[in-house]
Amino acid sequence: MLDQRPFDPARFASVDAMSLAPLLAEGPVAVIHTILAVMAFLLGLVQMALRKGTRRHRMAGYVWLGLMAVVALTSFWIHTIRTFGPFSAIHLLSTLTLIVIVYGIWTARTHRVQAHRRSMIFLFVGALVIAGGFTFLPDRAIHDMFFGASQ
Ligand code: HEM
């Protein structure tokens, strides 16, 4: 049977809406880091799907690597997880990301297609998707944004 009662918002009071508060609480650098990471994820998907070797591929590639570089660099000003002094294991991934960005540009400019392809796949899957996935671990800001803070 259909629920015939009039609509009463109070009945939905226990359903928590997604809140930006946990992310905003991390400060402006984390907000910029997150926005640019999401942009890099979307542009990365497009770049992977489109034809390679074209002028558009080169232009979008430089924009993407620029986004990835700023995502990795801004992470050095975020210190929520403190494993080694103010840094965490994810900062090792940020360092590796910066090295692979330089290697990826070098292999593209010297036309070493297979090495370039591997380095870009590493950046997209190994850095962006995996680091993005880690943000859904309990007690991290993105997790708390979607699922609320753990008690
Ligand atoms: C879609 C992708 C990503 C999202 C949504 C994201 C989001 C965030 C957020 C919200 C924080 C601060 C709050 C917290 O730690 O919970 C953070 C921290 C951090 N992110 Fe990302 N990030 C992404 C990708 C990346 C990538 C690609 C890297 C490195 C290559 C990276 C490296 C880090 C590091 C090192 C920290 C600091 C961890 C700490 O010690 O607290 N993130 N990220």
The portion of residues forming beta strands comes to under 5%
Please state the overall shape, judged from the principal axes of the Cα atoms: globular
Cα Rg: 20 Å
- What's the pLDDT, averaged over the residues? 92
Tally of alpha and pi helices: 6
Give a quick summary of the entry.
With 151 residues, the protein is mainly alpha-helical. The chain has helices at residues 21-24, 28-49, 55-74, 89-109, 113-134, 141-147.
Strand and helix map with partners:
Blueprint lengths: L20 H4 L3 H22 L5 H20 L14 H21 L3 H22 L6 H7 L4
The structure holds protoporphyrin IX containing FE (HEM).
Any overview of this molecule?
With 151 residues, this protein is mainly alpha-helical. It has helices at 21-24, 28-49, 55-74, 89-109, 113-134, 141-147. α2 packs antiparallel against α3, α2 (28-49) packs across α5 (113-134) and α4 (89-109) runs antiparallel to α5 (113-134). It has one domain. The protein is built from six helices and no strands. Helices cover 64% and strands 0% of the residues. Residues 23, 26, 30, 33-34, 37-38, 41, 71-72, 75, 78-81, 88, 90-91, 93-94, 97, 127-128, 131-132, 135, 140-142 line the site of protoporphyrin IX containing FE.
